[in-house]
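Journal club side-thread
Mid-discussion, someone asked how the predicted structure for our own chain would compare to the paper's figures. Pasting it here so we can look after the session.
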Amino acid sequence: MSLNKPKLVLIDLDGTLVDSVPDLAYCIDEMMKVLGKEPWGIDKVRTWVGNGVDRLIMRALTDTLWEDPPEDAYQEAHPIFMKLYADNTSGRSCLYDGIEEGLEYLKSNGFKVGCVTNKAEAFTVPLLKDMGIFDQFDVVVSGDTTPKKKPDPLPLLYAAEQLGEQPVDCLMVGDSMHDVEAARNAGFQVVCVPYGYNHGVDIRDAKPDAVIDSLAELKNLL
């Protein structure tokens, strides 16, 4: 299938551009050890990633997706994780196949390109810089840039406004149902990759406009 050619392409970070689970899992497991609890392991943590580190910490404490832990438990765990992740943001992470090729295609063909993530700016910018792709983006919207995060449409609309584009001329590329929901609510087209973090659910079930195996395939759609 082909899409209406956008002027602005926004791309999610964790699970779309970067496989960041190895670092996140390391920090979660080290946090659990400090708390005197058993570590979870990378496969378990992989099913929890995608809604920001605050929710990731809660999931590690409750072993559920959406239950909140006792406040005192969260308040104890949060600074432990944040210190660990500040020191271990990117050392084990890597770009997915096709990312550099896909970004080069977009930039060389005149598309405006942005990154929109639920990850806090304090971690987003270092990760993008460490991966060598920070300079490819015309705008970076992190989880604390706007008052609300994806799946709320606000971060996407904010990015479009910053670059002077209307939603009808924008495309979101992500890996999760929250990316699809945010795009739909913002009036964007949406394309997904199947390899990211969607809590074990096939992203095709969220009915994006298209699914591509790598960012390098964008040129075939656009």
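Post-session note: Strands lie at 8-11, 18-19, 94-95, 112-116, 139-141, 170-174, 189-192, 210-211.
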